Amino acid sequence: MHRTLLLLAGTFLFLGRSNAQIAERIWAEPAVLKSFTKRILVVELPEPNTKVIDDFPKKTAAADEAAYRASLENYRAVIRPAIEEHWKYNSQIEFMTTSQIVELFTKKSTKHVVLLRAVLTDGGGVSVFSRYMGVPALVMTRTDGDQRCPRRVR
Fold it and tell me: What is the radius of gyration, based on Cα positions, of the chain?
């Protein structure tokens, strides 16, 4: 009896977790999205983040850091050719490092929108990096401080 109840409870827990989906959510009205086409698209070329590296467990820090740096390098190698070949939404495209993009946000530039590398975490959050479960994504947002979905660092 106990074994059956435990199996049943485990099944329901598993089904609840395995049924999670990425929310279909666009935090912009059609007119705002159309206005993005007139702005310069800045594509992020991510740099290693020391806060992420410092947060790796000490036991596996070296291997985790190597994998993290390799993943950033792989991303940088493929994002530029993919955007140059396939992106038709904006006529002007620039590529900048993460620190250069942070300056655009600080200046609240009205001339740019950025395409950021992100992870969609369970529960609908957006993160820069997650060593836990998440879906890699590209997030397009404005740099003028008027975005509805702010990018969380952790």
Answer: 19
